[in-house]
Amino acid sequence: MDNRPIGFLDSGVGGLTVVRELMRQLPHEEIVYIGDSARAPYGPRPAEQIREYTWQLVNFLLTKNVKMIVFACNTATAVAWEEVKEQLDIPVLGVILPGASAAIKASQSGKIGVLGTVMTVESGIYKQKIQALSPEMQVESLACPKFVPLVESNSYQSSLAKKVVYETLRPMMGKVDTLVLGCTHYPLLRPIIQNAMGKDVKLIDSGAETARDISVLLNYFQINRSRTAAQLNHQFYTTASPEAFKEIAENWLGMISTVEHVTL
């Protein structure tokens, strides 16, 4: 048993979609979350800057004595996960491989679409992972740079969000039977994305798939939290407005105690 918390990092609020799934699957685990909303989105930034910011988030989580770090951010996973994983002596999990694996299982036609930030799409990481596991799969990727700002500004249920999503997804419509939401912000737009793509297109939430892998790693390393441990004390931190973060977090997770501002 290991009663230390699990650390989550993201460029903003999107990683809360991973946290929600973890809370559903493993409600006895404690969470420390850091979202870098002040510098979101990461997608358009150069790789070296994303790497620098990601290490700042990692180092912050290490000060909280976490037993595992989850990259709840596809862009950070694409750019820095391999490097960080090699340098830490605790498990470090990214969101891309679980999402890629789930897409392969879900696709009937072998035609998979990937939505992501500019950096995630340009890296080609999803196509590499999917075709490494299943070379016959056809993968088409689409950058959606306007999606993260919609979520970070709490506009993901607005008429503007619907207009932006439909316009952005037009090149992908009718071409795939499975679509990876390759950014943890995108599940907040899921109802609109599903309507735009049609009910027969299977949407893959890479964050939800990652939560299942967290459970596997906790068991493998025998670091599950004791069911009789003290009361949970989830901690949420943001580099931007705690009030704005809390509003979105409570919409997505239900009541949370406090959100603290940090400067990295």
- Identify low-pLDDT runs: none
End-to-end separation in angstroms reads 31 Å
Strand order of the largest sheet: 4-3-1-2-9-10
Total strands: the figure is 10
- Number of contiguous helices: 11
CA gyration radius, whole angstroms: 17 Å
Helix and strand composition category: alpha/beta
Which H/E pattern describes the elements?
A: EHEHEHEHEHHEHHEHEHEHE
Largest sheet: 6 strands, parallel
* Proportion in β-strands: 15-25%
The best one-word shape is: globular
The average pLDDT is 96
Helicity level: 40-55%
Would you write up a description of this structure?
The protein is α/β, with parallel strands linked by helices. The chain has helices at residues 16-25, 47-62, 74-87, 96-106, 118-123, 125-133, 147-152, 159-169, 190-197, 206-220, 242-253, and strands spanning 6-10, 31-35, 68-71, 92-93, 111-116, 138-143, 178-181, 202-205, 235-238, 259-261. The strands form two sheets. It has a six-stranded parallel sheet with strand order 4-3-1-2-9-10, sandwiched between helices. The protein has a four-stranded parallel sheet with strand order 6-5-7-8. Helix 9 links the parallel strand 7 and strand 8. The longest helix is centred in the first third of the chain and has 16 residues, at 47-62. The two termini are 31 Å apart. The mean pLDDT is 96.
